[in-house]
Design a protein that fits this description.
The radius of gyration is 21 Å and the shape is elongated. The chain has a 7-stranded parallel β-sheet with strand order 3-2-1-4-5-6-7, sandwiched between helices. The chain has a 6-stranded parallel β-sheet with strand order 10-9-8-11-12-13, sandwiched between helices. It is of the alpha/beta class. The chain has 2 domains: about 180 residues, Rossmann fold (3-Layer(aba) Sandwich), CATH 3.40.50.2000; about 170 residues, 3-Layer(aba) Sandwich (Rossmann fold). The protein has 14 helices and 13 strands.
Amino acid sequence: MVKIKVLHTEWSDGWGGQEIRIVNEMLAVREQGVEVFLACKDNSKIKKKALEHGIKVFVLPFRGNVDFKTMFSLIGIIKKYNIDIVNTHSGKDTWVGGFAAKISGSKFIRTRHLSNKINDSRLNFINELADFIFTTGESVRSDMISLNRINPEKIISIPTGIDEKIFDPSLFNREDERSQLNLDKNIISIGIVAVIRKFKRHDLFVEMAAELLKRHDRLMFFIAGDGPIRKEIEDKILKMNLSESILLLGHVDEPAKLLASLDIFTLTSDSKEGVPQSVMQALLMNKKVVATDAGSTRDLHKDENFSLVDTNNLDALIDATESIIIDTKNDKVNTREYIVNNFSKTCMTDKIMKVYTELVHDK
């Protein structure tokens, strides 16, 4: 069987859910025999991560939607390495990567990670040129069909698959992980794991914490992640005199360990989510979860496996979290099985490989 070769492109230089998805997806399909490549900017964090995993990386400028230098460089790469599929991820690299694929005769896959709607102008036609589109949630898929004229047969929702072997509560000793954070057994720990960006609404998390601390003793809050508005959140915590009750942990390399130490996990986003990886991770770890109904978060919600609340609603966040705090039954939850069966790394990989195989067969 001829090895399928896939070139991924990414304009972003950040490191969040989208970039993590790209690297993990490349590693997952590589295990199935696919040869993977990455084209990205020189100062990007994804470049470093890809190189750490032995992925061949091409450094290109990706200056904008109309960047002929990058486009012609991609055409050269596609021809030299006999690339079968070009998979683009952000807006700017989708334009140059998409045209490079079409000019070179390769198949063009567009992955749409965010849930905010795409401009429906006829001039914004690049997505219509794609041979196939992956979205990270059903709401994104529906929007692109209805607003962006995408053929329903050429678009599929493939949520980011989480490795259930890593996020397995049986691998962790809760007391040991809590001791690393100086948490005794009587403290209720509440956390969020997210890049500190505006739409993640860490400000709501801080305000929720402030109100809950007025009502309940022995609570501790944790923010894991880094990002462009970290200083703004730090200043808010200082201004509200919450520095001893809300700890900013920065980027956490092993989120499963933090999740093992938490009693409650929250996500406070107001928009742009696909199917959020952090919520999937928390559910795999059998955590009690409160999450806002942003993007395709609802795709994870089944049989009340977690509390789903309206976006931009501080009172709803407080009420849902408090209901868990005051639940004296101390019953364990089993949220893991549904995620393993529907949102695992294996599920994601199988769906991607099916599309790859069909596209290459049609070349």
